[in-house]
Amino acid sequence: MEPEEANGKGNMGTKKKNLNFLRSRLYMLERRKTDTVVESSVSGDHAGTLRRSQSDRTEYNQKLQEKMSPQAGCAAETLTQEEEEEQQTRRMMARRSKIIEELVQTERDYLKDLELCIKEVVQPLRNKQIDRLDVDSLFSNIESVHQISAKLLSLLEEATADVEPAMQVVGEVFLQIKGPLEDIYKIYCYHHDKAHSVLEAYEKEEELKQQLSLCVQSLQ
């Protein structure tokens, strides 16, 4: 073999070694970018190697920090409880506000019904002065009921108008008007059964029944 051929083969062998070396280095560099090797030891003679991706390593570090910082976890849990209590308070206040709104609207509708009854039925029957028809026996003290209901509604509206829901106090309104309410409704309820019996008797007389029906139709 001539010296030039020997030198050529030697150079080729050196180049192959260099290429193999570069390939192995590139492989190791690429591997380090994507994997992290964590050596872990357990009791006894067993040992293992845990490989994690870059994202897994980040998550692992976060969990490790949380375990090493229990106070931070407690603070987050306390904040969550405070948020839940605040949400519950808001729900309760919203429900309370709606109940008060419905209460006031119910009284408003009831007062309107009383006004219609007095205007379209009670007063026309009184003005007609029909024989054998006792308006007071039928409707008792309905005008007094109307007056006390108007007073109650006025107090409720005053207690809830332009007032924050948390500051609305309607219980005091009923305590304030409790006495007059009881006195008036005692009379109305006492005569209720008698009024029902009188109405049944009037419906058996054609003339009285017709007069009552006309008043009811005017309400419709």
TrEMBL record:
GO terms for cellular component: cytoplasm. InterPro entries: DBL_dom_sf, DH_dom, Dynamin-Rho_GEF. This is DH domain-containing protein. Residues 38-71 are annotated as: Disordered. PANTHER family: NUCLEAR FUSION PROTEIN FUS2, RHO GUANINE NUCLEOTIDE EXCHANGE FACTOR 38. Residues 95-220 form the DH domain. Signal peptide: none annotated. It comes from Myotis lucifugus (Little brown bat).
